[in-house]
Amino acid sequence: MYKTPGRVCPGGMGEQLNPEKFTFDKQNVYYPPLSRLKKFTKTMYSPLGKTQKATEARRFLLEAIKAGRLDYIQTATAQFGVTRQAIHRHLSYLVEHGYLVAEGSTRARRYSIGPNRWYAASYDPSVADESNAYRRDFHFVFADLPKSIEEICHYGFTEIFNNAIDHSEGTEITVMTERTESHVTITITDNGEGIFLRIARLLNLPDPRESLLELSKGKLTTDPANHTGKGIFFTSRAFDHFFIRSDDLAFTHVDRHDDDFLFHGEKVTAGTTVTMEISTQSEKSLKQIFDAYSSGPDDYHFDKTIVPVKLALYEGERLVSRSQAKRILNRVERFSRVVLDFEGVDSIGQAFADEVFRVFKNAHPDIDLRHDNASEEVLKMIRRAQSNS
């Protein structure tokens, strides 16, 4: 069970909930434990040990064995000022937890990288290169995964890393990867302005929460000369769990649910943290993701968007006004197929429905505008607006 750290608004910006009493079952929503994110962003969280000294020693051993060094025991005893017995205990820990595989007898024992892998590193964004970081530092984490999963990991890693380089305006980017037999997790953190505040500032949005609605549509970029706005959208759909935390807002997309979730926490988190997780047994591929939002199997033109209408609901609001409708329709004219997902929306007002299904539709007859998951009350208002066309 994952406990929320503050106000939680599943499916919109709705009611304030007691964080001590309200929890999400992991089967219903994925929310990375806040304690883990705090440990990582403040102290380079590591599963390799409870103390900094143990973590450093075990990380050194992993690095040395990965590099093929043969003198790692002698070097480790000298570097960390411990006995050979202590180093062997560290090696036993790494074997027991799946980070190393041991072969041979005690005296002739050889070690190799195990199925569980972890690596973390920090970079100066002014000189960092996402492709070099992946190839040089992190590729071993993803090596020998099924090709389709490795491709998804490479895509998400490089897209989010590059976004942090080009957009965060921070001074440090920290990357943590963890692989177990069941899943792969990538977390990328920067100490910059924060993604939601930056989008709101550069796009002149009245509220940073509107940034989440815009992100969910896709084709959102604050630098159109150098970016298409597709990276975050496709990454969020490619992974099983996709999570962004910045300032006092968090956004998550869960693959097995149609819903996107918005979390509004009490505490402010500087910069931006993006966490991506995918099962090692996943059968997804990037081609499937691209096909689902493209014109056809031979054309990767990004022409379809699904807009989760509930993300436009602020606390205590109902969707009744034309201004709310325009907020939802902002930038959707860039797509030729638009699906408005009304999951979690009980009703809409006449002015809202008229603006979307008559005014906008008449102004953009070439756009295939559809709706999904609409309640009977919502359908009544849609039909009424369409009948006036």
Question: What would you note in describing this structure?
Answer:
- The protein is of the alpha+beta class and 389 residues long.
- The protein folds into three domains: 2-31 and 117-284, 2-Layer Sandwich (Heat Shock Protein 90); 52-113, Arc Repressor Mutant, subunit A, CATH 1.10.10; 295-387, Transcription Regulator spoIIAA.
- It contains 13 helices and 15 strands.
- It has helices at residues 34-43, 52-66, 72-80, 84-96, 130-142, 147-167, 195-202, 210-217, 231-238, 286-292, 322-329, 350-363, 376-387, and strands at 2-3, 7-9, 23-24, 100-103, 110-113, 117-123, 173-179, 183-190, 241-254, 260-279, 294-296, 299-302, 304-308, 337-341, 368-372.
- The strands form five sheets. Strands 2, 6, 7, 8, 9 and 10 form a six-stranded antiparallel beta sheet that branches. It has a three-stranded parallel beta sheet with strand order 13-14-15. The chain has a two-stranded antiparallel sheet with strand order 1-3.
- Strand 11 (294-296) and strand 12 form a beta hairpin.
- Helix 2 packs antiparallel against helix 3 (72-80), helix 6 (147-167) runs antiparallel to helix 9 (231-238) and helix 11 crosses helix 12.
- The radius of gyration is 24 Å and the shape is elongated.
- The termini are far apart.
- The relative contact order is 0.11.
